[in-house]
Structure formats: structure tokens, C-alpha cells
Specification:
Strand content of chain B: 25-35%
Strand content of chain A: 35-45%
Distance between the termini of chain A: 32 Å
Number of strands of chain A: 10
Radius of gyration of chain A: 15 Å
Order of helices and strands of chain A: EEEEEHEEEEEH
Structural class of chain B: alpha/beta
Shape of chain A: globular
Distance between the termini of chain B: 55 Å
Shape of chain B: globular
Largest interface: A-B, 23 and 29 residues
Helix content of chain B: 25-40%
Number of strands of chain B: 34
Oligomer: heterodimer
């Protein structure tokens, strides 16, 4: 478990994002949507499920769907390593875990500094991104979790 | 208490007041001029309380409407107004509106109720539509103008009621229900119950589920240790957890009446809209079902009932033409059977024509003409469950709401239930729904496939078969591309679980030199074998839903968490059948037909061994109970072994003392198989129980035959000798059997019995047994032969004993034939059947069967034969109808 909160107050107009790496890209999800990040990788594959459903896992008694974000984004399936983690978000009435290659820091971004995604990030997957935020050395791509978890994501 | 709380309380109480109001109003309407005043008072008081509280809370619209309702009820109460169908419509509309406002209490004051108020005021003013005018106290002031457009003259049979007819028609709501409605709406529930938020119960249920999981995990650890105290605590925890879970489950049970109660209104409204006449009878409202099932079953049931009215029942004219009573009958019944909730929706309408279904399926391109041609009627009936299949020539507003029978079937199967159809063109249609009692926790078998574990609900499992590698080649065959397995003469389609799930099979398991595990499962009418790599445990599992992204996985029902914390998927047995497009292999039907019913008939046997490698069987139907005793508890009194037991003495028999076999294996604890013989209870001492299995009744009655042993059969390479409990008891205690002597008939002859039974084994048994009692018996191989024998022999027979399942003519048909002839009207008919379900019994009784018996229960059969042949009053009356 990674602590998601430090103690400096968040100023108005700022949002905190839990960030993580998917392939080489740094991605973020608003912290309000994230319930926990864990390394529980005892997955049970589900036959006939969409390709981007990696399986299901036991999250303290609930059976939670694990989504392979790489497949949603049109990449090769995630290769599970020691660093692979689940970003558990609440979506509708259920919890869903999103596979990420590596967890990163919590990033604070003022709303006005979030820009439209540049063309080289966007492409066909544009609908999954809310925008980008420029950090010192890289870009944080902010995910639209609802779009990622929409039932027709597989059609992408 | 603040205002919000008071209003919330008001909503809850008002809901209770209104809960039964529809059926109460319908019952009042049914009562007509003789309407039950107590019932009227009950409704009046309910509405009055709502009015009072609404006034106090400033809910004026609710108050006004309740007041107007009260006025009409007051007129009915004072016998100044006969509740006509138009008046009842107005009352029902008002009650609907009232309920709607109470559900949205915050905005209730802005809801327009003038329509309902005017409707009610017209009634109080005596302005009623023509046709109802005669029953109103005041002369009609307006005629046509006052008829509300939505209340056409309604041809429900309620309408036939005028003050002139003395008896209230037996209508929609049975007497006892009216009674219970009245009691429940009289006031808040009795002191012994409290109101609990459903959310709390749901949480309790989840917690119990978690506890079950934790217990399972703990037990795995405990069982691995040798620690005595720990294992004691473990087993107590185990027991308490199970009981806790069961008790919590009970709190969630609700009577099915809460769903059934909607149907009188639905049927009434529908019949009137469709200009049909219909009578709905409801039975088994008290049957309890888990809340979650109740909620989920409501829509499918509504669909079935609507269908029955819309597509089943014909118009009154058509019914008269078909020589049926103009008023159609719809029956809704719930009952418990074999740990399941059964719901039957039947109508006496036009039935479903299998030939037309085939034509439709071909016309719509669902089936190829050849396929349609090859289909049996029973399979053709399944077509109604195909998506996009509607038999109605036009889509009516009533049933054609885009919800087809396919949705009904899917929803029921999603609940772990099944639905089947029985229909006879011109006679009616019956839908039979079977549901589990609860959804939350189900007994399951855990199986292995390709290195993963899967759970299969026990309710879909019929038996487990292990085929040795050496036998696989001879018992598993390929028909075209499908694999089939030869199981006791029938061909069972096989499905490899790994193929169905689209996963690569475990290479080790795929190795041909291994034994094959087949799980025989059943979904609806379809039975097939599921091939898995291995079997693990039987477990009570907690059902956890799968996320929304897996809705398309037809082969999976849900998931569960196993003792080790891993997730296992629960298989959907009917989903797998659909996914694999399993149909009965064409050859199966013909193979089954060729073998005839004789080999199909099964007997459930309790198998045990007395000494190692000596196997015996007792028909389960004859076993009253099985007890476990310590050898020291057995007394010997005058050379007779007995057990002091339940305040009495149970005589005990040892097999080796009466039949040829080795002495009983020495054990410190023994089983006592208790049965009834010679009007008392007797026990057989058994050292080891093996299994209970349904086995075919093809019995070798020569090789091992001796008094006390009927014969033998080979099961799973064991030779099992069938114990004849009656003969065994007779051999041990001949003195108990002197009282039953045959009484000659009034004419002074020995009573003659006609026996129809297709199984050689049972027929020989019964003939021999009845003859030994002194009766004259004529055995026939099927119903057709029996019918010819009886018809040509005229009065020679005093009694008919018949099997139900027989080729050529079954027992029900035989009974119908017999009953059609006046000269046989009073001939007693006893049906013997190896599997007598409630439904079979009901059908049999309808056909005219006098009594039902389980095969081989000689004691009972003999008593009945004796009673029916000696009863002098039987000429007058011995047909019992339901």
C-alpha cells in the first residue's frame, strides 16, 4: 500500500492525482476516485471476458474485476512483474482494479494548467484522456476513468 | 422526533395500510351486494388513518383524495352502494394515485388529483355508467357523458354479478387470503416481530458470508493439525457458523404472496382490456422465498401470467365453440419440493401448437426445414424460449413489450432456476418454474480444469461418473463432431469444460491414458456430461456477483472465494449448453425410444455392505430413517435383538440370520436402517453404508433369489443383492403376519386385480406378492394391453393397479380411458410409481386415480388393496378429484 496523502493542504483549484506508469507513459487518476493501490496479483482469468479484462481478484471478500489498461489503450498485454500494481477505483456501484506497470507519486496540478493532449499522445485513444499536465521532465496524462471503463472500451 | 422522521414514519405506515388494498377492493367487488362488511371496514379504517395523519402533516392532496375514497367506502359500508365494476375501477385508480403520492410525499401537494376526485364524487353522487346504474342507490342523472373512457363494460366474471344473484362468485381472492389480508392490515404487526431495515439484513448476510469464508480458511488450517482442543473449537465454530448463516437467511425470507398479490389486479385489468373472461386461483401464498429471489422473479412471473391471459385463454366465444366454459381458468401455485421453490402457472386455454412453432421457426429462418422436421414436439416447444420468437400472430400491446419468453427463461436461469412447458393443444398450457430457496449461499462441487478451479452448483448435478482409461474407448463415441457417452443405455452428449471455456486443456489431463471424470448435469430438459480434469471438494460457497464487464460470459454465473482466498468462477450450466449449441443428439431420441421406458425406469437404492465385498441394496422409498447406534446400546431380549429407542422398543434384524451371507463386519458403531413392516417399525443392522444411487430396475431375479432377497443387479462392477424387507421381516417374525386375510367380495369371490406394469421385475414381484396374499392377479405389460384385457373382461376385475410410466399407453391415459366408460366409474385404481412428485400425483388424481403408492412399499399397497377391495361403499363413491 502506498500512502496517497501528505499533509500540505490542497489549495483551491488544485487537484491531486495518483500517478503510475503504463508502458513508458506517466498516467494519473484523480485521487478522489482511487480507493487503494495494492500489489495483490493473485488473478483468476475469466474465460470469454473481453480481452482487456485480465481477470478477477479477491479484494477483502469482494470479487473485483481487473482491467488491463495497456490492452484498453491498444498496447500489448501487461507483463506482470514484481512492480506491477492494481489501482483500485470506484466505478458506479463496483470496485475495479486497473493494472499499472509501476506506481509513482501523487501529483498536484492546478486546473488551469491542464492542457488538451498533444497530437502525439492522442490519436485513436484520445477519448480516454482528460488532458495533460507538464511536469519538469515528463508529461502526466490524466485519464478519464469512466471512458476507460465504459463497456464499449474494447471497440477502441 | 423531527418532521422528517414523522413523515418517514407516515410513509412506512401508509404503505402498510395500502399494501393489501387492491385485493381487498377486488374481494369487496366480488362480494357485490353481499360485500363483507368487516373487509369494507378494514379498508375504510386504513384510508381513514391515512387521511387523519395527512391532515395533521399538511399533506392536503393526500388528505383530500383519502377523504373522497372514504366517502365511497362509507356508502358501501352502509349498503347504500353496491360496489360495481366501474366503482371499483374508480376506487382502484384512487388507491393507485394515493400510493404514488405517498411514494413521492414531498411533492404530493403539487400532484393533480382532480381526475380521481371527480371520479369518486360522481360515484358518491350516484352518477354511474349505464349497466351499473341498476345497482346504484340513486337514479342516474347523466348517462353516456358520465362514462369514463377508460372503463369499458368489463367482461370479467365479477361483472356478471347483480344484486339479484344470491351467492358471491368464487372469485379472484380465495377466502383464506381475504382473511389474512384483513389481519395484516388491521394494525401494526404483532409484538413478536419488529421492523428492520433491509440494508441491515443485507449487511448481516454479507458478514455471515465473510464468516463462512473465514471459517472455511480456519478449518483448512485446523484440519492440518493434530491439536485436539483446537479441532474441538474448530468444529464448534463450524456448527455455530452454519446455524448463524441459516438463521440470518431465514430473516430474509418473505412469503411469495407479496408477489402473487399483484396478479388478481393484473388479470382483472387485462381480461377487461382484452374482452376475455378469466378466473384466477392462487395457491401457496405462504411459501417462503429469499427476498432477492422474490424481487427477481416478479417480472418473469408477471410475463407468464400476462401471456396466459393474452395468448393462452381464448375469447369467450371461441371457448364456447370449443365446448369449454366461457370463463377461462388461470392457476398460480407455489410449493416446496426437493429443496426448491416450485411455481406453476397454468391456464386452460388453447395450448401451444408444436407444428405451428416449427412453421414459424422455418418462416423466420431460425430453423432449417430439415431441422424442424427432425424435432420432437417437446424440443419444438423449447422454440418459444428463442430470442425473437413470438407465437402471437400480431404483437399485442399486452404481451408484446419487447420482453420475450427468452428473457423470462434467461432471468429464471440466472437465478439458478429452470422453466419448463407442458401443453396440450386445446386443453391448456402449464409453465413450471423451479427456483432455489436462496441465492446467497449454495452447495457446490469444486472441480479442476486446466489448472484452475471452478464451482458447479449441486442443484444442477445429477451424478458423477468416472470412466476408466481402459473403458473410455468403448463408452465414449463420436457422432459427427459431437462426443457422446453411453450411460445405462442412453447417449449423453459430452462437453469438455476446457473447450467450452476456450482455454487450453491441461496437457497432463489430455493424456489419453487417464481416467475421465464426467459430471452429469441437467439444465431444463437437457442433460449432458461435463468433462473435467478432476474433482475437489463439495463446499457451501458464497455467491459473489461478477462485475459488469463480464455480463457477456454466458458460461459463468458468478464467482466465489475459496478457502485459500482465491477466486473460483461458478459455472452456468445452461449457459454452457447454449454456448456449445448442445441439442439432444439426434440418435439419442431414437436410442431412448428403442430401449423403451422399461430401461429408463430408475429406483433409488441405498447400498451397503454387510461384510467386505458383499453388497446389498434397499429401495430408498422404504427407508423411514437411518440411525447411528453404539453396539453396546443393542439389547438382547429372548433371543431377539432390540434397541431401546424413542421411548419404545425397536426390533432389529441381522441379515446373516435370514439370508445366505457372511456375518456382519465387527464395528463399534452400526447404522440402523429403519423401515415399516407389518404395521410396526423394524430396523436392519448395517455396518457400512456405501452410497445412494438411482439405478435401473433391470434385476436378475434368478441367480441370487431366496426368501428375503428379490434378486441382484450389477452396479459399477459390484453385484448388489436387493433386500426384500417385507419377506425378511416375515421370515424373522411369521407371527406378525396373520391378520391380513383376503376378504371375499360381496359376490363371494376372491377379489381379482388387474395389474399394468411394464417392468418385468416389478410385475413379477407384485403378481407374486399379491397372489401370496390370496388375490387373483392378472399382469399386463403395458397400459394398452391392460385396457384391452379390462374392456373385454367386463366385470371380472375388482381393482386396477397401474404403473404410471409405460410404453404404448401410460397409466394416466389408461385411467382416463377407464373413467370414460360409465361401467368402470367406480372401479378403484391404484397407481404405483417409483418417483411420485406432487405434480404427478395431482395429474393422476385429475385423471381419476384413487390412490397413489410408491413402488415396493408393499405394506402400504397391501393395506390399500385390502381396504379398496373390501369397502362395500366403493360402488357409490371412490373417485377422488382435486
Amino acid at each position: 500500500m502506498t500512502s496517497l496523502h501528505d499533509h500540505t493542504p490542497v489549495s483551491a483549484g488544485e487537484t491531486e492525482y495518483a500517478s503510475f506508469y503504463v508502458a513508458d507513459a506517466l498516467m494519473g487518476v484523480s485521487i478522489g476516485q482511487v480507493e487503494e493501490i495494492n500489489h495483490n496479483l493473485e488473478l483468476t482469468p475469466v474465460p470469454h471476458a473481453p480481452a482487456w479484462v485480465r481477470g478477477v481478484m479477491n479484494l477483502r471478500g469482494a470479487v473485483v474485476t481487473v482491467v488491463d489498461l495497456r490492452v484498453v489503450l491498444g498496447l500489448e498485454p501487461t507483463v506482470i512483474t514484481r512492480k506491477t500494481c492494481n489501482v483500485v477505483v470506484r466505478s458506479g456501484s463496483e470496485q475495479i482494479a486497473i493494472l499499472a506497470d509501476r506506481v509513482a507519486d501523487v501529483v498536484r496540478a492546478p486546473a488551469r494548467e491542464i492542457e488538451m493532449p498533444p497530437a502525439n499522445v492522442a490519436g485513436n485513444e484520445e477519448r480516454f484522456f482528460r488532458g495533460v499536465y507538464k511536469l519538469d521532465r515528463e508529461l502526466l496524462v490524466i485519464l478519464d476513468i469512466d471512458a476507460v471503463l465504459a463497456n464499449d472500451a474494447a471497440l477502441a | 422526533m423531527n418532521d422528517e422522521q414523522i413523515i418517514a414514519e407516515f410513509v412506512v405506515e401508509s404503505r402498510e395500510h395500502l399494501a393489501g388494498i387492491e385485493n381487498q377492493l377486488l374481494a369487496i367487488e366480488a362480494g357485490g351486494a353481499q360485500a363483507d362488511l368487516d373487509l369494507v371496514n378494514t379498508v375504510f379504517r386504513a384510508v381513514h388513518s391515512i387521511k387523519g395523519a395527512a391532515g395533521f402533516l399538511g399533506l392536503n392532496s393526500i388528505g383530500h383524495l383519502a377523504h373522497a375514497l372514504e366517502n365511497v367506502l362509507n356508502l358501501i359500508r352502509n349498503r347504500q352502494l353496491t360496489p360495481s365494476s366501474a366503482a371499483t375501477d374508480a376506487l382502484l385508480h384512487a388507491a393507485d394515485k394515493l400510493r404514488g403520492m405517498i411514494e413521492d410525499v414531498d411533492h404530493s401537494n403539487s400532484i393533480d388529483v382532480t381526475g380521481q376526485l371527480e371520479e369518486l364524487q360522481r360515484i358518491t353522487a350516484g352518477e354511474l355508467p349505464p349497466g351499473d346504474a341498476a345497482t346504484s342507490p340513486a337514479p342516474p342523472v347523466e348517462t353516456a357523458a358520465a362514462v369514463p373512457a377508460e372503463t369499458p363494460p368489463c367482461p370479467v366474471n365479477v361483472d356478471l354479478q347483480t344484486p339479484a344473484s344470491p351467492e358471491p362468485p368464487e372469485l379472484l381472492v380465495p377466502e383464506k387470503d381475504r382473511e389474512s389480508d384483513r389481519q395484516t392490515s388491521r394494525g401494526p404487526a404483532a409484538d413478536s416481530s419488529i421492523r428492520v431495515n433491509v440494508g441491515v439484513l443485507d449487511r448481516l448476510m454479507n458478514l455471515a458470508g465473510e464468516l463462512v469464508l473465514a471459517r472455511n480458511q480456519l478449518l483448512q488450517v485446523v484440519n492440518a493439525t493434530e491439536h485436539r482442543t483446537l479441532s474441538n473449537v474448530g468444529s464448534r465454530l463450524n456448527q455455530v457458523t452454519s446455524e448463524l448463516q441459516e438463521t440470518i437467511m431465514q430473516t430474509r425470507l418473505q412469503t411469495i404472496g407479496t408477489v402473487f398479490n399483484r396478479f388478481p389486479r393484473i388479470v382483472r385489468d387485462l381480461t377487461s382490456a382484452l374482452h376475455k373472461e378469466c378466473q384466477l386461483t392462487i395457491d401457496g401464498q405462504e411459501v417462503e422465498v429469499d427476498k432477492s429471489i422474490l424481487q427477481a422473479i416478479s417480472d418473469p412471473l408477471t410475463h407468464l401470467v400476462r401471456n396466459a391471459v393474452d395468448h393462452g385463454i381464448e375469447s369467450p366465444e371461441a371457448r364456447l365453440k370449443a365446448r369449454k366454459p366461457p370463463v377461462g381458468k388461470i392457476e398460480l401455485r407455489a410449493f416446496h419440493q426437493a429443496g426448491k421453490v416450485n411455481i406453476v402457472v397454468s391456464d386452460d386455454g388453447k395450448g401451444i401448437d408444436a407444428a405451428r412453432l416449427r412453421e414459424k421457426a422455418v418462416a423466420r429462418g431460425i430453423l432449417h426445414p430439415d431441422q424442424a422436421h427432425a424435432m420432437s414436439d417437446r424440443e419444438a416447444l423449447q422454440l418459444v424460449f428463442r430470442p425473437g420468437f413470438s407465437t402471437a400472430d400480431r404483437v399485442t400491446e399486452v404481451s408484446g413489450r419487447g420482453v420475450g419468453m427468452d428473457v423470462v427463461k434467461t432471468n429464471i436461469e440466472r437465478l439458478g432456476g429452470t422453466v419448463s412447458i407442458d401443453t396440450q393443444p386445446g386443453v391448456g398450457t402449464t409453465f413450471h418454474v423451479k427456483l432455489p430457496l436462496t441465492l446467497a449461499i449454495i452447495p457446490s462441487l469444486i472441480v479442476r480444469c486446466a489448472g484452475r478451479r471452478y464451482a458447479i452448483p449441486q442443484t444442477s448435478i445429477r451424478e458423477l461418473v468416472r470412466v476408466k482409461a481402459s473403458e473410455a474407448a468403448s463408452r465414449i463415441e463420436r457422432i459427427k463432431r459431437a462426443q457422446v457417452f453411453r450411460l445405462r443405455g442412453t447417449l449423453l452428449p459430452l462437453v469438455e469444460l476446457s473447450t467450452a471455456l476456450g482455454i487450453s486443456a491441461d496437457p497432463a489431463a489430455a493424456n489419453a491414458a487417464r481416467a475421465i471424470n464426467i459430471i452429469v448435469v441437467e439444465a431444463g430438459h437437457l442433460r449432458y456430461g461435463l468433462v473435467v480434469d478432476g474433482l475437489c471438494d463439495s463446499e457451501e460457497i458464497v455467491v459473489k456477483p461478477l462485475g459488469r464487464h463480464m455480463k457477456g460470459c454466458a458460461c459463468l454465473a458468478a464467482a466465489t472465494i475459496l478457502g485459500d482466498g482465491n477466486v473460483a468462477l461458478i459455472l452456468d450450466i445452461s449457459g454452457i449448453a447454449t454456448h456449445c449449441q448442445l441439442a439432444m443428439p439426434e440418435e439419442e431420441a431414437s436410442a431412448a425410444a428403442a430401449l423403451g421406458n422399461a430401461s429408463e425406469e430408475k429406483q433409488s437404492l441405498l447400498m451397503f455392505s454387510n461384510a467386505p465385498n458383499e453388497f446389498f441394496g434397499i429401495p430408498m422409498e422404504l427407508v423411514a430413517r437411518i440411525e447411528r447406534v453404539i453396539v453396546e446400546q443393542i439389547d438382547s431380549v429372548g433371543g431377539q435383538q432390540v434397541l431401546q429407542y424413542r421411548g419404545g422398543t425397536l426390533p432389529l434384524l441381522s441379515l446373516e440370520e435370514h439370508v445366505h451371507c457372511r456375518p456382519r463386519a465387527e464395528k463399534s458403531k452400526l447404522y440402523v436402517v429403519v423401515f415399516a413392516a407389518a404395521r410396526r417399525e423394524v430396523g436392519v443392522l448395517v455396518p457400512e453404508l456405501l452410497d445412494i444411487r438411482a439405478v435401473p430396475t433391470q434385476v436378475d431375479t434368478d441367480t441370487f433369489r431366496e426368501p428375503g432377497i428379490i434378486g441382484s443387479l450389477v452396479y459399477d462392477k459390484m453385484t448388489v443383492r436387493l433386500v426384500d424387507l417385507h419377506e425378511l421381516t416375515r421370515k424373522a417374525h411369521p407371527d406378525w403376519f396373520n391378520s391380513q386375510t383376503v376378504v371375499p367380495t360381496a359376490e363371494g369371490n376372491v377379489p381379482r386385480i388387474l395389474l399394468a406394469e411394464d417392468s418385468d421385475f416389478f410385475r413379477k414381484q407384485l403378481v407374486g406378492f399379491l397372489e401370496s396374499e390370496g388375490y387373483e392377479v392378472e399382469g399386463c405389460e403395458d397400459g394398452a394391453i391392460a385396457w384391452e384385457t379390462l374392456r373385454d373382461a367386463a366385470d371380472r376385475f375388482d381393482l386396477v393397479v397401474t404403473d404410471i410410466e409405460m410404453p404404448n399407453m401410460n397409466g394416466i391415459e389408461l385411467t382416463r380411458r377407464i373413467r370414460q366408460e360409465p361401467r368402470f366409474e367406480s372401479l378403484p385404481i391404484i397407481a404405483v410409481s417409483s418417483l411420485a412428485g406432487e405434480e404427478d400425483i395431482r395429474l393422476g388424481r385429475q385423471a381419476g386415480i384413487s390412490e397413489y403408492h410408491v413402488k415396493l412399499d408393499r405394506e402400504q399397497l397391501l393395506a390399500t388393496v385390502s381396504r379398496l377391495t373390501r369397502n362395500p361403499a366403493r360402488k357409490a363413491k371412490n373417485r377422488s378429484h382435486v
